[in-house]
Design goal:
Chain B: Keywords: ATP-binding, Membrane, Nucleotide-binding, Transmembrane, Transmembrane helix. Chain B: It comes from Lactiplantibacillus daowaiensis. The complex is a heterodimer. Chain A is an alpha/beta fold. Helices cover about 65% and strands about 10% of the residues of chain A. Chain A has a domain of about 300 residues: ABC transporter type 1, transmembrane domain (ABC transporter transmembrane region fold). Chain A has a 6-stranded mixed beta sheet with strand order 6-9-10-3-11-12, sandwiched between helices. A 4-stranded antiparallel beta sheet of chain A has the order 2-1-4-5, covered by helices on one side. In chain A, β11 and β12 form a beta hairpin. In chain A, α5 crosses α10. The two termini of chain A are about 70 Å apart. Chain B is an alpha/beta fold. Chain B is about 65% helix and about 10% strand. Chain B has 21 helices and 10 strands. In chain B, the strands form 2 sheets. Chain B has a 6-stranded mixed beta sheet, sandwiched between helices. Chain B has a 4-stranded antiparallel beta sheet with strand order 2-1-4-5, with helices on one face. In chain B, α6 packs antiparallel against α7 and α18 runs parallel beside α19. The chains are: A alpha/beta, B alpha/beta. The interface between A and B is large, with 150 and 161 residues. The structure holds adenosine-5'-diphosphate (2 copies) and magnesium ion (2 copies).
Chain lengths: ~575, ~575
């Protein structure tokens, strides 16, 4: 019930002790309040005047206020710890994210990462806020009350003590039954609950097929089926709440009847009987509040585990083998990969036996069918993926490195994928992302070289227009130009990694964009993965990739002369008629 | 308050459903009321029972009725509660079924617009979430509030029956709890909700920026900036939550204090009203004890009501959907087989757009012809297709099939046009069912033949479940080329005379693209085809090429003619063939 990981949180142990002490005091307040309320009632029952019971009434009022105040105090004590913990968690998650890098995001999915960091931690907050106080209350208050009841009359106390484990036992048994039933129905249930969104998304297709009107009835029927299944699950799931309710209220009823008989045969007087009756609901209260938030707790616990798991992931080490300053890549610099291999999940290698010798300002084209491993190779060169350890060697300027996730290396290249990401910021900020200190005129000049000037003139605030998700739409061609403007702005990065930058563009946009890209390629080491053949004419070296291996490499002329994989690929790509 | 009524002024989503399934609703409320009644009555009765027993009645039968009642209430409370939970869920889920159908119909009317206005489909999930939200509105706000109000009225009347001034006092004290506090909560929370949403939104945007742009952050080496950017909203959110919690703690504290006062007031009142003789004094404990079980029922009202602002947003959003039924009395059918499609001098501009998309554009397509439509993205190629399908209406000019305006053929659309676009949708069901959607009457063999024709049969045979394989959400388990082929099989079964292709190969690599185009033009050789494409691969499959630019066709002819006469076409063609 109590997650051991909770105790590892800073300040939690001390807090637990304080909260437990406060719970004891709260228990005592509950007893005083019950005691003096009963004294007042019994006084009135003896037909005494109001004036004689004013004092117990006052004590009741004070104890009641104290009790409620303690609830606030406990929350107030708990909250800073929770706030600090969740704040720290958020920060740690963000830093961890930075360390894990884009390959983690690719593997986990953007949506999942955002959910973990945002809603996940929100849930953790609710969880921490709820669970600690409630569990401590549940472990302290009932016993304080029970001791007092036992002191008044041991028989009722024994009964209340015996019923407690019984309730928990029943809740657990029914909880398991509900879980088993829910599990059995889960697959169909899940499908039905997703059916609606699935149908809405597919609506244009339904309309094209002439089925859309008819489908309304289907939506209704499926939804009704969903209702029936849900009810079947709820009927069982609610049983455990029912058990809790049933046993607690019935126990109170039983205690009342016991007391009634006790009073008749004179073995007890009204005052203690009334106190016991007043206290018995309070005896069960902590258990009931805990159970009512059980689901929120469960979600929070899972979210907490997910965050802990992410934070425990291993991160890349040895990132400073090339120093921590950007490399100065020059005409005589070299990069060599020998027999390097990579695999995504330790199963089949996605890349194997890579041998690449790059030097100076070479332009290296990477071609191959889709799925052959072009993007994987580019990501490996960018250091986003780590090669299989103990396989082959990578050298930068003769210096051996274990991977290319090197601070120095990464600050020396630009990476331009098919869809460059545009930040939710102004156009100028986007262009100056790699050079936040660049002046507006330099940014303007870079934008001009990237062919953005005409477009910028149509924007309401020119370079200061907000772009990115949710703001002004930017077409694919323009996004590429913005990425190119980044490269024009920062002349110190001499290496360019392109991953199919024009694959999704229409031919005219591509033709125009090509004219902009060509000047950037000068004086740079270029790796250019593409399946658009015309780019090869601008390359001075080509790697042909197939099934994760470089099956052929050489200058385009050499490869054309040699009737191998390159020629075959060209033929297939030029295919059709 | 004004805001509250404004929300429901033209409401067609919440109020009407309170009337539908009236009986079930009444039952739900009754059961909810009984739950709290039993809880309170149990303590009332127990208090009376022991007070009476303490008078040492000479016969146990004197307390027999309270004993039985105590047990009855003790069992009644959980039983009613259980039943209430089930009926309330039943009621709400019934409503949800109606909602879904209604939402579906509303969206169906603007199916095409939705796809283009909200590319990602996020809005659809949003709308689906709104419905779940309204579900919670009932379960968490409406039911508890209504039940508490009913309890409130009953209690005040009951106490007023004994003494009117005390009834009045309770009207006031309980009114603080069930009316004043909830209103206060909604006021405070409403203001904070707006602020909270803004902060959440920034946080979300920054987080998405951080996650999606992680590669850029990493290679930029701006680690400190990265951390600094995330920190600000984290602190803001924390601050907001703190204020939220503070308010809730003190609100609950105040409510509890009021209950304390009610308790004291009951004792004072009892001392006047119930102390005339020993018998009536037995009721004192009963009255005082019955207060405590009510705390639960009344306290939850404030929390439930304070959630209103978030529900309100959902209600407003679904109410903004146009749910008026479409009028289709002017629809006819095409009596003769399709022979010609005529687009005559159309003008078009999006109501929201500044640009004239088409200017006196004309196009004629005879049965059996194959035409490719090219042009830079954003020139209006997809718009032209929508005009031809009748999803949009031209501002001037005509679009006709065999002299019948397309606007009058909307009910027959699926028999006339087959459409294959960039992302054909595959439903989360089996391959067989997905393909059969092209023609629900098709036999298994016909479906298999269609899949054979699009060259998918070997791939499907290799799957463990064969034709009964589930395609998974959005067709995720198949590659882009395979998804297009599945959709193509669907179109084959649909067997419409005119086929509209809107850049079906845009996300495919050249080899897959070449193979797919070969299949498309092979299986559709006898159809009329209008093909929008973004480059020139496979251009030789068509008889006619049109280049759309600035609202008009600026190049037209067969591919061979254009290659010979139009330098621009030649340059693009060569580029495409890798000869540049
Ligand atoms: N994140 C990943 N996890 C596992 N396998 C992957 C992942 N990304 C790609 N692959 C697999 O690696 C192979 C190469 O993919 P990729 O490098 O994307 O090819 P290309 O860019 O040439 O189309 C493919 O078989 C693909 O399925
Ligand atoms: N629903 C709409 N409202 C306003 N403008 C639109 C809408 N849909 C498209 N547009 C605009 O109309 C132009 C043509 O769009 P579209 O037909 O999709 O181009 P294409 O298919 O040629 O790429 C674009 O500038 C686009 O921004
Ligand atoms: Mg790739
Ligand atoms: Mg389009």
């Amino acid at each position: 019930m109590f997650d051991p990981a909770l105790f590892k949180l800073p300040g939690m142990r001390r807090l637990t002790v304080i909260l437990a002490l406060l719970a004891v005091i709260e228990g005592i307040c509950i007893i005083i309040q019950a005691q003096f309320m009963s004294v007042a009632i019994v006084g009135l029952w003896h037909l005494k005047a109001l004036g004689t019971v004013l004092q117990p009434m006052l004590i009741f009022a004070i104890a009641w206020t104290m009790r409620q105040l303690l609830v606030v105090v406990k929350n107030k004590l708990m909250y800073p710890v929770v706030e600090k913990t969740t704040g720290d968690l958020r920060r740690q998650v963000m830093q961890k994210l930075y360390d894990l890098g884009p390959s983690y995001v690719a593997k986990t999915g953007t949506g999942n990462v955002v959910t973990t960091a945002l809603e996940g931690i929100d849930k953790v907050q609710t969880y921490l806020m709820l669970v600690v106080i409630k569990v401590i209350d549940m472990m302290v208050i009932p016993w304080v009350i029970l001791i007092y009841i036992a002191w008044l009359r041991w028989r009722e106390a024994l009964f209340l003590l015996a019923i407690f484990p019984l309730i928990i036992l029943f809740m657990i048994i029914l909880g398991y039954a509900a879980q088993a039933k829910a599990d059995r129905q889960y697959v169909g249930y899940q499908r039905m609950s997703n059916h609606f969104v699935d149908t809405l998304r597919g609506l244009p297709t339904l309309k094209q097929l002439g089925l859309s009107k008819r489908y309304a009835e289907n939506v209704y029927q499926v939804s009704e089926g969903y209702r029936k299944q849900t009810l079947a699950v709820i009927k069982i799931a609610m049983l455990s709440t029912f058990a809790l309710d049933f046993f607690t209220t019935l126990s109170i009823a039983v205690v009342a009847v016991f007391l009634g008989f006790g009073l008749i045969d004179g073995s007890i007087t009204l005052l203690p009987a009334l106190v016991i009756l007043v206290l018995s609901p309070d005896y069960f209260l902590p258990l009931r509040t805990f159970a009512s938030d059980y689901h929120a707790t469960l979600n929070g616990k899972n979210a907490f585990a997910a965050v802990q798991k992410m934070l425990a992931l291993p991160i890349a080490t040895d990132r400073d083998q090339l120093g921590d300053q950007p490399l100065a890549w020059q005409a005589d610099s070299t990069l060599s990969l020998q027999q390097v291999a990579f695999s995504y999940d330790d199963a089949q290698p996605a890349l194997s036996q890579l041998n690449i010798q790059a030097h100076g300002y070479q332009r290296i084209g990477i071609i191959g069918a889709s799925g052959s491993g072009k993007s994987t190779l580019i990501n490996l060169l960018g250091g986003f993926l780590t090669p299989t350890a103990g396989h082959g060697t990578i050298k930068v300027n003769g210096q051996t490195v274990t991977h290319l996730n090197q601070t120095a290396w990464q600050q020396s290249f630009f990476y331009i994928p098919q869809n460059p990401y545009l930040f939710h910021a102004t156009l100028a900020e986007n262009i100056a992302f790699y050079q936040p200190d660049a002046g507006l005129s330099a940014i303007g000049a870079a934008a001009d070289k990237a062919g953005l000037t005409a477009w910028i003139k149509t924007l309401p605030d020119g370079l200061n227009t907000a772009i990115g998700e949710g703001s002004r739409g930017v077409s694919g061609g323009q996004a590429q130009r913005i990425a190119l403007a980044r490269a024009f702005l920062d002349k110190s990065r001499k290496i360019l990694l392109f991953d199919e930058p024009t694959a999704h563009l229409d031919i005219e946009t591509e033709a125009a964009l090509k004219q902009t890209i060509l000047p950037v390629l000068d004086d740079h080491l270029v790796f250019f993965a593409t399946h658009r053949l015309h780019w090869i004419n601008q390359m001075d070296y080509v790697l042909v990739v197939d099934h994760g291996q470089i099956v052929e490499q050489g200058t385009p002329t050499e490869l054309t002369a040699h009737d191998g994989a390159y020629v075959q690929l060209r033929n297939e790509m030029g295919g059709g008629k | 308050m004004k805001d509250f009524f404004a929300t429901f002024k033209h409401d067609t989503w919440v109020m009407p459903y309170l009337r539908k399934y009236k009986k079930l609703l009444a039952l739900t409320l009754f059961l909810g009321l009984m739950t709290f009644f039993c809880g309170s009555a149990l303590m009332f009765n127990s208090g009376y029972l022991i007070s009476k027993a303490a008078r040492h009645p000479y016969n146990i039968l004197m307390i027999y009725v309270p004993i039985v009642l105590t047990r009855a209430f003790g069992i009644g409370r959980p039983a009613f509660r259980y039943a209430e939970r089930i009926t309330s869920h039943n009621w709400v889920l019934r409503i949800v079924s109606d909602f879904r159908k209604k939402l579906y119909q509303a969206v169906e009317k603007q199916a095409v617009a939705i796809r283009q206005n909200f590319q990602t489909g996020d809005v659809l999930s949003l709308l689906a979430d709104d419905i779940d939200h309204i579900e919670n509105l009932y379960l968490r706000t409406v039911f508890p509030t209504v039940i508490a109000l009913m309890m409130y009225v009953l209690i005040v009347i009951a106490l007023g029956y004994f003494s009117w001034w005390f009834g009045l006092l309770m009207l006031l004290l309980l009114g603080l709890i069930v009316i004043v506090m909830p209103l206060l909560s909604v006021l405070v929370n409403g203001a904070r909700e707006t602020q909270s949403r803004a902060i959440q939104q920034t946080f979300y945007t920054q987080l998405t920026d951080a996650v999606m742009g992680l590669g850029d952050w990493l290679i930029s080496g701006r680690r400190a900036d990265f951390n600094a950017r995330q920190a600000a909203p984290i602190d803001e959110i924390a601050q907001l939550r703190r204020a939220d919690h503070q308010f809730q703690w003190w609100r609950d504290f105040t409510i509890q204090l009021i209950f304390g006062v009610i308790c004291l007031a009951l004792m004072v009142w009892s001392s006047f009203y119930w102390t005339s003789n020993r018998d009536s004094a037995n009721w004192i404990a009963a009255f005082v004890l019955s207060v405590f079980p009510l705390v639960d029922a009344f306290q939850s009202v404030s929390q439930g009501v304070s959630e209103w602002p978030s529900y309100q947003r959902s209600i407003v959003r679904v109410n903004d959907l146009d749910t008026a039924p479409v009028d289709d009395h002017d629809q006819t059918i095409l009596t003769e087989p399709f022979s010609v499609l005529r687009v005559g001098q159309i003008d078009f501009r999006y109501p929201a757009g500044q640009r004239q998309i088409f200017n006196q554009l004309s196009l004629t397509l005879k049965a059996g012809e194959k035409l490719a439509l090219l042009g830079p993205s954003g020139t209006g190629k997809s718009t032209l297709l929508k005009l031809i399908l009748g999803d949009l209406q031209p501002d001037a000019g005509t679009i006709q099939l065999n002299d019948v305006p397309i606007a009058h053929l909307q009910n027959e659309r699926a028999q006339l046009f087959g459409v294959l676009d960039q992302q054909p949708y595959l439903f989360n069901t089996t391959i067989m069912n997905n393909v059969r959607m092209g023609n629900l009457q098709a036999t298994d063999d016909q479906v298999k033949a269609a899949l054979e024709a699009v060259e998918l049969a070997p791939m499907i045979d290799a799957l463990p479940d064969g034709y009964d394989t589930m395609v998974a959400e959005g067709g995720a388990r198949f590659s882009g080329g395979e998804r297009q082929r599945l959709a193509l099989a669907r179109i084959l079964l649909q067997d419409a005379p005119i086929i509209i292709l809107d850049e079906p190969t845009v996300s495919l690599d050249p080899i897959t693209e070449a193979h797919l185009l070969a299949t498309v033009f092979r299986v559709l050789h006898d159809k009329t085809i209008l093909w929008v494409t973004h480059h020139l691969a496979g251009i030789n499959y068509v008889d006619q090429v049109r280049f759309l630019e600035d609202g008009q066709f600026d190049m037209a002819g067969t591919p061979q003619e254009l290659y010979a006469t139009a330098p621009r076409f030649k340059r693009l063609y060569d580029l495409d063939q890798g000869r540049d």
